[in-house]
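So, who can interpret the following?
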Amino acid sequence: GGLARTLPGSRAPGSCQARDRRRPRRSCASGMAAHMSVKEMKAAISAAGMSHVGVTEKEDLRHLAALALEQVSAASAASGGAMEKFLGDIRAGDVRTIKAAISTDLEMHSFSKDELLAGGLVEACLSHVADPAVATRPPRNADLRLLSQGGGAPMPICAINVLLNATSNVRKGRWDAAAVALQLRPLLQLMALDVRTVWGEPRIWDGVAVMALGLIRNVILHGQAAAKDALWSGTGCGDACLRLAACALEDERLQQAGLALGMRGVSSPRECGATVIMEWCDVGLSGSASSPDASGRATLALVAAVPCGPRQASSFAAELPRLVGCAAAAREHGVLDSLEYSHAGLIKEGGEATGALREGAAVRQLVSAAEGRSAARDAVVAKHLCGLLAASLGGAAGTPTDAEGEAVIGAGGVEAALRLCAAHPLAAELQEDVVCILRLAQQAALQKRTGAALRQRAESMHAAVGALRAKGASSHLIEIAAAVVGMCRTVSEATAAGNRPGTQVLMGVDKFYCSWCHVEKPQEQLKRCGKCKFARYCSPGCQHADWPTHKKECKLKAKALESGHATTGSAARRRDRNDSFDADAFSRAANALFWRRATEVVQSAALQRVDLFDCVVCIDMCGDRHRVRPVPLGALAAFLDEAIGVDYTDGEHTEVVHERNRRNGALTALAYAPTGRPPPEETHQMILKTFPPNPGLSWRQMHDQLLGMPAFQEQLASSDSHEEAIDALALSLESSQRG
């Protein structure tokens, strides 16, 4: 008390101020904890890494929650200071900090990549290339040693490498890709300059360009439509992205720089460039992001017109077939996949900018690649090349025109696809593309110039079908190929020279073939069908084998022969086309398609959070790319009306079959495909099918195993759409679990 009286400003022990000092002050964390529920307090304790096990009293729980909040607050303050110091070191070009950030994947710091990107990492890294003068001269005391000389990489390359590393988490990261894209303007402006130098050195520009391309790829893949819109409209430098991507597809300097910097595989310059261009083509196809005139067709035209080729003297559309050939020769599967998608998109544009892709020279380049050694040895390369040929034949509308049919068939595209199928008889996806080519060839053959080109290629196509049969390819594929070969032959009318009806004329010379085995034989060794007088066979065995296919054609031709109607010409071709639907082949194809994609059906049902046995599996075989999906029984009629525009009137029978199959643990499926017949005839054929359980694993066990997979649960929680989740799951499932 005596000491208190001697201190200036002090009060007596009994005063109010003394009583306040004796009472413990209430912290901010305690005040927050006082207003929290028990559930919120437990969550705060767990978030701080503490445990509340054994704490039963509410007051003790509140005290523990206050300690947890104080700990989190202190950690946040320390993290903020550490982040400011880290970003300051990046701006200052501290070598140790930048090397540590690159080598340790930023895990050495107490903050995540998402926090860094939101806190200013992009601005800090781009400060090394923001000054336009960086293109021509280095800053003072700059280190110009290059990786290939054994020294460290220059600072611009290292800075962009840090950004590339920070954005590498394109699947699970929560960073804002559109915000990052808007900040890339200085980098894109540097890449758009005609002077391809940084610090006055072309090799440093190459390194920065490789890193920038990988960064653009990461931003687009993570942000999709919003990121593309920000890159194009927000920065005003979208064309620089396309130019850089097209340059990376063939610039050897960039490939060497990528190898020196360790950019291989999916991060190689060529694959990054192909991915960026593919994503811009996707903008044009889907219209999901804005383009200069808000038109997908205009976006595709811009992609097609991007400067490409030697000295940037050509366009991307003109050089695309050559780039495909180079990627096929190098067996770069990722590049081929992206180029195939880009090619399909540009073909659909159908304007003058993409006219080079529809010319005969472009198709001949694709056929040359299909006849190369890489395609014969690699089934994946062969599959991509057949997909490109199918897109070239289908054209913008998906139905071949006379010019497109003449270009592809005249260049030997059909027999090249058949030879690839013979080289890889077990590649199911390749066979699907070849069947698509054959179907399109059948449609195009009804046109004048395409029919003439088909007759000119008859000899080589006949040999290709023979090779296909010798390799043991599927009977369905051989039947379609034989039908196309059969269209090469026309029936000549009886002439004064004594030719009888049924003579098969090939390229102006009378030649005779067995209608089943297609072996050329003398006329006297072939016996004609007694009913239609058209088909010829070398033995009774060939006649019996061909009867399931020939039966319908035989009936039509016999009727035409009796009525006196011509069996050739446009009218007969229209009749043949309208009655060419093969129900048996359709049923076999639906079976094969379902069993190949059975796992995908289970995945899709789980992702939609519906019971698999409440669904009917719809097997859609209407388009070029067939789809298999489970649809709830109650929504089946509405789905079919929306998908193919038909009224499904057989719902009661489907319900009976579905209930029976459900009791037996089987799946009910509805397959549908176009018949090619015009209204009022049936435009679509539908077949109701039953698929029993797998011998070793029932559908219910398969469904339960999938739900118990951690990878599936994680994907289910993080995916924005069912399609993205299915794609990711297909990569994460073990090979034994795939359909």
